[in-house]
Amino acid sequence: MKVSIIGATGYAGAELLRLLLRHPEVRVAHITSESHAGQSISYVYPHFERIMNQPLESLDNIEAIGEDSDFLFIGLPAGYAMTIGLELEKLPVRIIDLGADYRFHDTAVYEKWYKIEHAHKDAKCVYGLAELYRDAIKDAKIIGNAGCYTTASILALAPLVKYGLIDTDSIVIDAKSGVSGAGRSAKLPNHFPELYDNFKAYGVANHRHTPEIEQALSDISGKPITLQFTPHLVPMSRGILSTCYAKLKDGETAERVDGAFQAMYKDEFFIRLRGRNAYPETKYVRGSNYCDLGWHIDERTNRVIVLSAIDNLVKGAAGQAIQNFNIACGFDEKLGIDMIPMYP
Amino acid sequence: MKVSIIGATGYAGAELLRLLLRHPEVRVAHITSESHAGQSISYVYPHFERIMNQPLESLDNIEAIGEDSDFLFIGLPAGYAMTIGLELEKLPVRIIDLGADYRFHDTAVYEKWYKIEHAHKDAKCVYGLAELYRDAIKDAKIIGNAGCYTTASILALAPLVKYGLIDTDSIVIDAKSGVSGAGRSAKLPNHFPELYDNFKAYGVANHRHTPEIEQALSDISGKPITLQFTPHLVPMSRGILSTCYAKLKDGETAERVDGAFQAMYKDEFFIRLRGRNAYPETKYVRGSNYCDLGWHIDERTNRVIVLSAIDNLVKGAAGQAIQNFNIACGFDEKLGIDMIPMYP
Amino acid sequence: MKVSIIGATGYAGAELLRLLLRHPEVRVAHITSESHAGQSISYVYPHFERIMNQPLESLDNIEAIGEDSDFLFIGLPAGYAMTIGLELEKLPVRIIDLGADYRFHDTAVYEKWYKIEHAHKDAKCVYGLAELYRDAIKDAKIIGNAGCYTTASILALAPLVKYGLIDTDSIVIDAKSGVSGAGRSAKLPNHFPELYDNFKAYGVANHRHTPEIEQALSDISGKPITLQFTPHLVPMSRGILSTCYAKLKDGETAERVDGAFQAMYKDEFFIRLRGRNAYPETKYVRGSNYCDLGWHIDERTNRVIVLSAIDNLVKGAAGQAIQNFNIACGFDEKLGIDMIPMYP
Amino acid sequence: MKVSIIGATGYAGAELLRLLLRHPEVRVAHITSESHAGQSISYVYPHFERIMNQPLESLDNIEAIGEDSDFLFIGLPAGYAMTIGLELEKLPVRIIDLGADYRFHDTAVYEKWYKIEHAHKDAKCVYGLAELYRDAIKDAKIIGNAGCYTTASILALAPLVKYGLIDTDSIVIDAKSGVSGAGRSAKLPNHFPELYDNFKAYGVANHRHTPEIEQALSDISGKPITLQFTPHLVPMSRGILSTCYAKLKDGETAERVDGAFQAMYKDEFFIRLRGRNAYPETKYVRGSNYCDLGWHIDERTNRVIVLSAIDNLVKGAAGQAIQNFNIACGFDEKLGIDMIPMYP
Questions:
Q1: Does domain A2-123 have CATH number 3.40.50.300?
Q2: A35, A305, D141, D243: least CB-packed within 10 angstroms?
Q3: What CATH topology corresponds to D149-312?
Q4: pTM of the entire structure?
Q5: C contact set with A (CB within 8 A)
Q6: Closest of D197, D212, D195, D201 to residue D175, by C-alpha
């Protein structure tokens, strides 16, 4: 398949390139970057030296790129992908957007949280979280790849919601991410000495991943769910740990919780059930497409606590996009993304 | 005042020594260490080179040390301080224990969570969290210095509990600490390459600081509180951020929350109210005795989220111990501990 | 090929396992660990969960393991590999030792620097630095895989020595390594809070990699070279940067230096000549088998400064071992180890 | 004394403020910042919350500030301080410049390395490295505070040069710094994910601290010295370790080296001679004004290797500036800067 990466010089775009270059069924046709158009990707990212020296193109060529590609992977700031999607609607090229433009069933939710008018409201798009929306992904023209925090959080809570084990009004998600999740733009808050040996929360009560988690869990539940989501910044490069809390419904037991995770995920290649009382760590999944899950029951408080670890740039972005691509192409779902985590 | 540090080679003990050596009303008489008895403190900790070269003594001399000191600061593993407290009961020396032995009103709670029989059940001890127990600390013979996670968490929630603004059954505390909180013993989980670029939870549903937080908040509330507490390890040296969640009671408002924090803390030197919608960061308090507080109201979920940042070795251990010492001596409470945070 | 890893639970052994499990011509037959015999590798290293759950065997079975393997990769402390090599001398199994036992032409040098009597002095072994000893490696029975600091340093200086451009008496190598190079044993100096936000030198004038670098450069030069080597510990997990200094001989020029690097390495897949005035960084090679080289000429001092970056666990250990294995098997040299560096 | 900080929002300026606010003989009169004029310092640096809320002024007021101050500490980019120095020449105010404008005896050297025409060539300025230029500092009108790398490197080599023990042509200084040394401007190379878990060199053969080190060592030697200096960036916040190499002259011995360090520094409060074969670490001096020195003799190569550790923002900038200020005021040299290092 001929694929192109639109926005190849963000961290997610560069990770996509790294993985796609080793995918056995892929040829990377075009890579673009507005800020670095004309330069070689290996000039922008010297780790590609001698591996990929192709020049970066500009979005000006988007139509020609669309015609010359079977798939476009888009890694651009909110608002750009929907314009591209609209412009290329008539072409056969399929789109996997790593941003948020195509993630929401209801574009009004997008408009409310992103403060951008949606330009492509009638797009035929599906939500790209493979474990939950696999069938819809198969034939999708446009896939709105799930976000990083959302992937970790939705996968952690989905079994509990699906089997009706928790009081959904009590859900609190306390998530922590490495700094690559904040992108590659140099800004004071992400300047090295500011973050090193430091820890902080941000986006309390207003982070944009909140409605995305709510949408997926509401889909599963069948009724609207409102929940608490708080992100934090960890002084490390990669990785997300999501600590998810919920009250168990009366009469629910640890065994029923165990059963829900098994029933939902036992055949999922990329979800590793580390089991009850286990402690996933972000380093155990670094560089891989795995999501590791452990869960705990607190009998004193009657809460279940689920711990979920992913690599934000792989299962939370580039790896998941390729997983969706594999499904959309009818390939083995793990083709090119069954990397073993890199430790230590 | 002549003071001695029993257990001076743990991180908290060494930090105590650092601060006490610059305290204008203190002379450090004795320092002890079982593992390093006979060695100079500057051999064990070269940052003390030329500043403090005094040899470390053994606990074998505890009675003589007790007789030669006005105050003992104890930084030993659980179970040791109570033996010393009992042994020196008849001496005039006063004790500030940085461990847990003297933190609980009810020694049965201690015995349940620490799995150690309490040897000094009838001790006259007070809980050493200055902002909440100041009066009792003044004349205390034995002070059970508050723990690190507990200090950050109690100070965050106390105003909300005191003024009855929250549903106490809904409290979730998600806390994150630098690795110095785990002590100086070299163990595989804290080996550098295992933790670096890594993040994890531990002690879910069973961490020993849980009953300590519950005790203080129950004291304020007047009725027993059970809550959720989860600690995490951040790949950094120092600092704790505690993210505290609770449902607001019906009819409570952001202004009432603001008012509770102001009413309770506006005259507290070591509590810096950063205000509503503020984001305390651990680096803003590093090396200081401050506790920075910021809070947020989520109108969608009707929750209040309080963020609390301290330096675990200062306000969470050594600084707090000296604050208690100052109160117990009738000194200005901030004497010797008004360090400005070290940034970056 | 059936391969076994003797000492699979050190960092180098675990990295070997990670790479060998994805090598298309390899089946991992046995893995051993004295400290964890009987346990599953995924219990010791949870990043292998669901990927490799094979139990670890003990060295007690070494003869049976040797009979059941085409190749043994050995990752044990100094002194163990030579006993195994001796014991299995009659078997057809070939050995790649990641330790130092088989690295020296003259076992007296080994005995002097390692303070261990050599048990296998007449072994037919070759030095396993592929770019320099490729022909000898092809048919070797025993390969003494080059060390981490040594690989980075030798590759940096070899062209200058080979073409006689520098005064070899003036060589100073100032090298810096991530902490994984110090192994997985938990010891106080490598305890997280001791190293974090810290930097130090160690092994000045006596590090064991010194004679290894001298041996290889002397081989190239044809006459004995004595040089200065100083290692440092960087608060990071992986990566080595070696900064190498030497005085240019009178009349030598920048162009002659450029030419030497080109002549020696232009066809080497794993050596990326970043060029004159370039700055290799350890992150540009992380997780890959590349060695990146940049060089600078200081006209004021008439020195050449070469910067050399590798991943200490890949090109400095496991990746290099597989490169040697590929050569010894007649496979394409980059089979299974052409990973793209993981950034950021 | 009334002092003002010109350029208070760089890292060195903020550290100066932190230290000056606790100096018993100082009142901070004015603080300036061009980028943040009108804002409170605690808005720009929340660690000053409730400690210092004074608004930042603009340089437009420099004359009034100069009139209202006994001392100005200047922390501005190269080229600004000399304009201020010239403008305020007639006022009694004395100046301590943390930048490079007043560091060079010969402004031609400055112009060559900084590519800026010097505006104040006839200034009566002295080089502000207290241990070496103490007498001149006492009455200086303008003090050019020594740089960070230079302080660590000059103090390491001065005794060897003074007592003629080394071949000065063989000097190689390989220095490593935490990232705060690069300032607070957010730029891609210092963006957190780019530097974290990464190590690199920069400024090879052309770093501006080179001529400054050469000037000081030439002053001591009495004849011009040209040397090699290479800086590196360590993924940490604070600290410099300088590894300095030189060939011993024939006949020189370890004892003579020991003697040189003792003779030169035994009465220096801020220089801690850790001794022969010692390993200073940056964390042992963090937050303090100490310079720790250890040295090693390599009998195989006949080189002496000196290791020198400082906190780049204290002894390498703000602490040294106050040390100079104390000397210039006739105060005890350690007044307000005898902080004990903060560990871990």
A1: no
A2: A35
A3: Dihydrodipicolinate Reductase; domain 2 (3.30.360)
A4: 0.98
A5: 11, 14, 18, 21-22, 45-51, 180, 196-197, 237-238, 272, 274, 281, 283-288, 292, 339-344
A6: D201
